[in-house]
Structure formats: structure tokens, C-alpha cells
Sequence to fold (274 residues):
Amino acid sequence: MQKKIAVINDISGFGRCSIAVSLPIISYLGVQCCPVPTSVFSNHTGYPHFFFDDYTDRMPAYIANWKKLGLTFEGIATGFLGSVSQIRIVKEFIREFSRENTLIIIDPVMGDNGRLYSTYTKELCEEMKQLTAYADILTPNLTECCNLTDTPYKDSGWKKKELYAMARALSEQGPEKVVITGIRQGEFIANYIYEKDREPKWIRTHKVGTERSGTGDVFASVIAADAVNGVPFDKSVRKASGFVKKCILKSIELDIQKTDGVCFEEILFQLKRD
Fold:
């Protein structure tokens, strides 16, 4: 039987992010991707203007039909959640659809570069902290990790013991596996991998180009598909990091605007199915 992942995130018609990224990548890795839309955008909010339709009020009816179908999932993955109501709906979804072997992969999309997104109120941050306790795998960037652990943010100069303390604090709330992404180390970008009862690891790649929309979604999609396919976590993080780098390089080669994300479509065939 083919494995399935429910992906709870928004849909952006243009700009290569969220479900528009997750659907092809997860599918390519041999897992059926089943979207639960939280909202619909014509294009992401990094552009000067956009159409937006909030689906929060329609999510329960959408999900209720899946209950009637008796659907089960090997994985449940979450992305950007824009309100307390959405997070509470996600908690209920996890309680309803999780089975003994269902993996919960939470990407706590809250901000970047030391700043939270404008939608993230104190109440919303607290609700996200509660949601992370449901995760088996947690994929925060450095900004999000600092917020979730009430740790002061700094752009660089992180010591191993500091990252270990944050990752362990997050893991103690529930997740077996945590990867802290986007740690700047000179000419490198590092990811810090923490797994309970294992020695932490670093995975570093040379920094290329500039930041682009959707790279976190590319990374999290590979992690989610690999998780339900049984790929070792450190191997998956290395694969996801390397693929993001290749996507950025290809986007530079094709002169793709930063707001247009990364053209993963051109090199999807290079992503290994383990």
C-alpha cells in the first residue's frame, strides 16, 4: 500500500512555496501528498500585492469528509499556521488521524533573521509552543528555535553547548528528533541535528546566493517524505540541505528572481529515492 502524508499549509498559486512545493516533492519521493489548505493566496506575501482567502472556517468541514472516508496517514506535516484557531484545528486533526505508527512532522514557521512575522502575537507563539509537543520531528530555523525556547537571538557565534541546550529543551517537550536550520558559520550554513539518545551532529553546506522564498518548504518536504520512508534522520537532513543548495544554484543560473523561489522542477530528478 502506498504511504500518505497529510500536509496542512496554505496554497500559493505563484512563488513556489508551501503546498505548491510540498505536493510535487513529496509525490516524487513516492509518497501520496494529501493537502489540507489553511488559506489560498494568488502569490505569497513577498510580492507588492496579493489575493488572500482565509480557509479557517472551512477547514473543519473539509476534514470531516476525510473522517467519513476513514482515511489514515503515515505522516502528518504542518507548515505556516496563521492563527490560534488554525493551530487548534491542527491539534484536533492530529488527535483524530494519528495512529500508532503515524509520524508528526512540524515546521514551526514563525519568522526568520531574528524577527517573527507580523501575524505572530504572544498568544500565537504560546499556542505554537504547545503544538510542538505533538511532533515526532521538529524543523525550526534558528529564529524559531530561539523563540520556542525563550533564548535571546544572535546572528552568529553559536556554541555547540548552546545549540544542544535549545535542541534538548525542545525534545523534552515531545519531539524525538530536532533539526535547527540556518545557522550561519562564516562561508557555511549549518544544520544542527539532535536525536534522543544519540550524539548530536552538524551538517554544513557552503552558502550560495541570497535567501529565497520556499527553501524551508523544500527542506521540510524532503524531511517529511524521508521520515515515512524510513530514511535515517541525519541522512535525510544531509540530502535535504544538499538539494536546497542545488536548487538555489540552478535558480541563479536561470536568473530567477528571489521572490519567485527556487526552480526545483529543473533538478527534481536529482533527488534520490532512498
In short: The domain at 4-270 is CATH 3.40.1190.20 (UDP-N-acetylmuramoyl-L-alanine:D-glutamate ligase). The longest strand covers residues 32-41. The two ends are 17 Å apart (CA to CA).
